[in-house]
């Protein structure tokens, strides 16, 4: 359209509108999917940390600073830097039984929704 105003008939108007709506829906869906995949990645790291909680706590206690703990967590348990940071940022109250179940349930729900 070259940014020029034009008079359109109803068919052309609907065509342009539907094309625009399709692009909006596709972009929004891709954005939501990317966010869900990022969240699932972090939740997977938290799930791994919960399953190996004793090793994670020993690593954190034995580290001089957060950077050392983050770097040491990855080779032993196979976590990415983002997952390791999420574990270090996690509050201890999230380690209770109910919170562990919530993390696992959220992870499974996020996977289910991103695949649907």
**Which structural class best describes the helix and strand composition?**
mainly alpha
Helix content: over 70%
How many helix segments?
5
**CA-atom Rg in angstroms:** 23 Å
Order of helices and strands: HHHHH
Low-pLDDT ranges: none
Tally the beta strands: 0
Write the layout of secondary structure elements.
Blueprint lengths: L9 H42 L1 H10 L3 H12 L3 H9 L7 H19 L1
Task: Write a structural description.
The chain has 116 residues and is mainly α. The chain contains five helices and no strands. The relative contact order is 0.12. The mean pLDDT is 85.
Keywords:
116 residues; mainly alpha; 5 helices
In short:
It contains 5 helices and no strands.
């Amino acid at each position: 359209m070259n940014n020029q105003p034009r008079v359109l008939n109803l068919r052309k108007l609907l065509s342009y509108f539907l094309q625009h709506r399709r692009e909006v829906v596709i972009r929004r869906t891709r954005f939501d999917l990317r966010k869900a995949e990022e969240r699932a990645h972090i939740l997977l790291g938290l799930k791994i940390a919960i399953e190996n909680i004793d090793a994670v706590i020993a690593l954190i206690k034995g580290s001089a600073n957060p950077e050392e703990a983050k770097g040491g967590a990855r080779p032993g348990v196979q976590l990415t830097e983002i997952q390791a940071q999420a574990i270090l940022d996690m509050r201890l109250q999230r380690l209770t039984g109910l919170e562990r179940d919530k993390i696992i349930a959220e992870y499974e729900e996020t996977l289910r929704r991103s695949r649907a």
